[in-house]
Amino acid sequence: MYPVNLYNTLTKKVEPFRTNEEGKASMYTCGPTVYHFAHIGNLRSYIMEDVLEKTLRYAGYDVKRVMNITDVGHLSSDADTGEDKMLAGAKREKKSVMEIAKFYTEAFFDDCRKLNIKTPDVVEPATNCIQEFIQMVQKLLDTGYAYVAGGNVYFDTARLENYYVLSNQNEEELMVGARDDVEEDENKRNKADFVLWFTKSKFDDQELKWESPWGVGYPGWHIECSAISIKHLGERLDLHCGGIDNVFPHHTNEIAQSEAYLGHKWCNHWFHVLHLNDNTGKMSKSKGDFLTVSLLEEKGYRPVVYRMFCLQSHYRKPLMFSYDVLDNVKVAYEKLTKRIAGLSGEGQLQEEQMRGFEDAFAEALGNDINTSQALTVVYDVLKSELNDSSKRALIEKFDQVLSLDLLREEEAEEVDGELKAFVEAKIEERKAAKKAKDFATADAIREELKAKGIEIKDTREGTVWSVVE
Ligand code: AMP
Ligand code: ZN
Predict the structure, then answer these.
(1) Which ligand is nearest to the CA of 32?
(2) Would you say 8 and 44 are in contact if contact means Cβ atoms under 8 Å apart?
(3) Cis omega (within 30 of 0) on the bond before 249?
(4) Which residue has a Cα nearest atom 23 of ligand 1?
(5) CA 225 / ligand 2 centre spacing (Å)
(6) What share of the chain is helix, strand, coil (3-state, %, to 5)?
(7) What is the mean pLDDT of residues 314-340?
């Protein structure tokens, strides 16, 4: 078993990953809110969590991973105000909430498939678990951790010694840092209290509602992840992950209600992925025009190129999206897969020498999921003295974690086709610039291609190009 060191948001340290049961890892992931397509920012989180899961498997863990699908209860502000996102989606598309949920859940898994993100072992929509939520809320009421006010059930954060275990927030920061759209909810005893169960008294037009001991209503957003995790992974969770915006209030509330309910510590390790930003700031579904995997495909990028774009950066650093960088990754990816496709597959496996590379790969990932270092190991293998079949075998093994389709030979030809289309479009652009006597642009295009390892030459027959190794 390889050691894995991970940054833990709970302790704010990189520490050895330890599990409750030896060799087994329970992992919970906050799933998407299925009111719209996932944007490539959301998918950054799911790509890095996928690498995390596969790293644990590579290291020797037997992983059980569970993910919810949020199809009810997530309001437009994470702080229990505004409209239910699902309802807003249904209104936007003049469909029912369940139709919207089905459509966007399928779209989410289509995107995941294209990005080689493994489907978790259990995927559970929130609307499947209403009875579990009710039972959990009832126990929190019975033990005095929750109260009913104005028809809703709230969690009483004053009952906890340290509500802000995860986020180090204090009341003041909460007030200052609060979102613009935070409305005062007069039913709350404390500002940080959050809703466990809404009743019709708050949202009359809510489409999906269920009977409960507190009236017909629907669950708050946070309760679903606690209940679904406990249902499938038991009372002691090893690892919980999500995007950085989930730290507060969502994960802070999950810890509060889960530990109050269970009466002991719940999850040991918290993993958070920093955001993908674009030049207007954080990517967000509510901004209307946002980047999706399909849009990247329409623009000629294969989805794994975006996966590689993500793997080149560390998950704990914010990542800026740009087409220039994506273009560079595309060229690098094409060169890499071409090089791998050229390996002959000849020779006996040199197991002894291979082990050093296997260890280096595990060490890179075990070093807080250092994916760019892990990619470097792939290049080190290619540059090494190993014979072709050993190189192939190693890359095949590494690709179980990287999932970049590094070995698909039939794809390699297509890759060539893509590169060809890209370079030829640039050559056409340059030709037009030269015709318009815009030599600065023509030179800039030549330099741009050169920076990507492509050399062009003007001949009597026209412009020809070649890849410089
Ligand atoms: P949602 O569908 O809004 O519930 O979000 C799904 C996941 O995407 C959550 O784990 C979020 O924390 C994460 N997320 C949201 N925006 C971004 C972003 N710009 N970059 C990376 N992850 C994000
Ligand atoms: Zn969650």
Answers:
(1) 1
(2) no
(3) yes
(4) 42
(5) 5
(6) 50, 20, 35
(7) 96
Using a 10 angstrom Cβ sphere, with 0-12 exposed, 13-18 middle and 19 or more buried, the burial of residue 255 is: buried
Q: What is the pLDDT of residues 390-413, one digit of tens each?
A: 999 999 999 999 999 999 765 545
DSSP states of 416-429: HHHHHHHHHHHHHH
Name the H helices within 60-170: 85-93, 97-114, 130-142
d(CA 135, CA 132): 5
Whether residue 284 has pLDDT greater than 80: no
Residue ranges per structural domain of the chain: 5-273, 288-402, 417-467
Please state which architecture CATH assigns to domain 5-273.
3-Layer(aba) Sandwich (3.40)
Q: Is 89 in the pocket of ligand 1 (CB under 6 A)?
A: no
pLDDT-based confidence at 347, cuts 50/70/90? confident
**What's the CA gap between 252 and 169, in Å, rounded?**
10
Q: Could you give the CA distance from residue 137 to residue 172 in angstroms, rounded to a whole number?
A: 28
Q: Pick the atom of ligand 1 nearest to 45's CA.
A: 22
